[in-house]
Each structure stands twice: as C-alpha cells, then as structure tokens.
C-alpha cells in the first residue's frame, strides 16, 4: 500500500514507523528538524507544506492519506486536496483537536474530503472517563456503538477466583475472556485455564453486565460504590476540559481541577458549573496537600508536560491517593510511568494509529483497538452476505488458534457466542486476535 503522512510530529512519526514495515510511506513536514528525524525511518521524506496542492500533485499515486500535523485546517485542506488529486480513490484520515470540527472521538466527514476524522484528545478523555466509572479497570474500550466493552483488570491476591479453572467458574455466562497477561506471556484461554495473582485479564462484556464483571474481577472496589467519588484533575487543556465536561454534571462525582493558566481558568469556569476550579501549580507540594490530593479516589494528570504529569502523579500517590492516571505524549514512556508508580499511563497517539491500522487491514473491519501490552488487537468485523463464515456455526469455523470470537452483536443485541450459534449477515463479530491470525481472519470475513 502507498501511504502519505502529513506531519512528522510524535503522532506522524509513529504512524510512519508502524506503516513502514509493509508499505511504501512518504512523510511530508515543513519543519526540517522533524523531517530529519523521520528520515531515520525506512520512508521517503519531503520538506514542505502538506496543504500545498502543487506539492501533492508531484506525489506518486497513493492509497492512504493521513494528515496529522498540529494544524487542524491544514489537515482538513490537505485531505480535501488528496481526494481531488486521487479522484476519490484514496482513503483519507485527518487529525483534529478543535471541538467545532468534531463531537465524538472518531467520525466521518465526507463533505470535506475526510473519510475518518480523529480527535486524539477527545478519544483519550473518553477512555479516561470510562476508567473513572469502572472501578478496578486499568483499560477500557467501547465497541458496537456502546453495547459491548473491553475491560482489563488486575487480579489481586485476595480474589476468590484464583486457581479455579474457567470451565468450573462458567465465566462464559457473563463475559468472554479474551486473554490473560501473565508476566511476559500472552495466554489465549480455554476451559482449563485459571487465574493467578497479578494476572492482567482482558474481558469482553455486554455493557449492561459491566457491574457483574466488576464484582467478579475487582470485588475490593465494591465498598466505595455507595459514596461520591473524589476526583482531582490536574490540567484543563484540551484533554482536561473534554474529560471535565463529560463528568461535571454527575452527582456522584466531586470534581476538583487545578489549572496553572489564569486565562484558561476564567475561560472554563462558567462551562463547568459543578466543578471547583483552582488556579495554581500542581507541582507545589503545599497546594497538593491543602487540596486533599491524598484523600482523592483518583488523581488524573493530563497537562501537556510528561514530566509534570509524572511528578504530580507520584506526589499524589505518596500522599495517599488511591489511583493515579497520567498522560504521556510519548507512548514509549507508558511502561516507564507504570513501573515507577503511575497506575495507568495513557497516550493520545493510539486513537489515530488504530484508525490507520483499521483502514489498512481490511474493508470489513469496523473498529480496531491495538493492545500493545498483549501484543494483540481487538477487531470488530461486519459480516456481509459474501463472507465465508455466513450460515456456519461457530464450532465449524476452523478459527485460527491465535484468535477468539469474543462477542456477536445481532440486531443491536450482544450475544456471548456458543459453539452452536450460526453467523448471519450484518452480524458484528468482535474478535480478540494476535497478529499471526490477521490474514486468516480477513479471508473468513471477506
């Protein structure tokens, strides 16, 4: 596949890095330093304005056009130009941050030449919001228009499920276990599998059954459900405001925000009437103590500075905060953050990369969520009448051993699959898969 990436910042660089293994990639950026860094990859680099039509006309034919510069308007204009130049043959993806352009993390804007518009900041805020509501979860992703959720839990030493086989527990009556992460091993479970302390378990569950799954895998969180949740939010930039706006009206959340920029405080104070907004520097130890960081159920640090997010998170942890969520602009830092004491580290990069991968893996894929910690992905396929699996029961599909059907959504209703369940046209099939199974899966769903 021929891929053009506009913008060689952190997001663009990592997209080019991921795509360059099996695709011909051209990276365009007007900043010579960023272009020089991208030149270290196995890609072709051009220095220039990604919205310059004359420059784009010089490019060889391309299949995918990804505009992820820091300027929303350049990203949209370059996609529109790419559509015209390719005579609507190329798929386009634009990254935007301005809420005037986008109201949900991922949407389609064909009227301006954008097949997929992604807001990484809104996507990250949505993910954090899900984590706030599902107690004990360390990762959450929503599928099938909100009807199905992927949740990752860490099994505590006191969990009563430890040592019992899955066929004994009959977990498939409540959810599907996609994988168990045990130290460096990724286990696709079967009936004889069992849980051990500190295992990370990834489950696929109906949204209506999330509380049942919480009670199974994180029972220690049950005691805090009957009172308001105290949340301290550090930073009210794009990500912080998106998150605050999602939870501001929740009567079960007591939200306190610390923002260093006085103009920003004045800008958002009327937009967040139920939150307490404080002007101050959250790296000030006395301020964190005075504002009760140690008594917080969750501290979320989402400033634009990785160092500040790490420092504030560690100080709040030291003071006694129960859970720390920290943002990093460098996805490679995520394991470092979590190694030194941040409970959950997240990056804005992943939303855009997930959409790029979705468009390159296959036309039948509706949603894709990469799980780097599991070296796997969760794929949502839309079954067509031409799909090879139509009319066959699950037990006869000859499914790859590195993949598992986790949930089927039929006419809006999520169904936990059994061996006798037949796949029908228009079913949405959610699959947990390792990379080795992609080619076989695409043939089955093609």
TrEMBL record:
GO terms for cellular component: plasma membrane. Keywords: Ion transport, NAD, Potassium, Potassium transport, Transport. GO terms for molecular function: potassium ion transmembrane transporter activity. InterPro entries: K_uptake_TrkA, NAD(P)-bd_dom_sf, RCK_C, RCK_C_sf, RCK_N, Trk_Ktr_HKT_K-transport. Residues 1-118, 228-346 form the RCK N-terminal domain. It comes from the Archaea. Residues 138-219, 366-446 form the RCK C-terminal domain. SUPFAM superfamilies: NAD(P)-binding Rossmann-fold domains (SSF51735), TrkA C-terminal domain-like (SSF116726). The keyword ATP-binding does not apply. The keyword Chloroplast does not apply. Part of a potassium transport system. This is Trk system potassium uptake protein TrkA. It comes from Methanimicrococcus stummii.
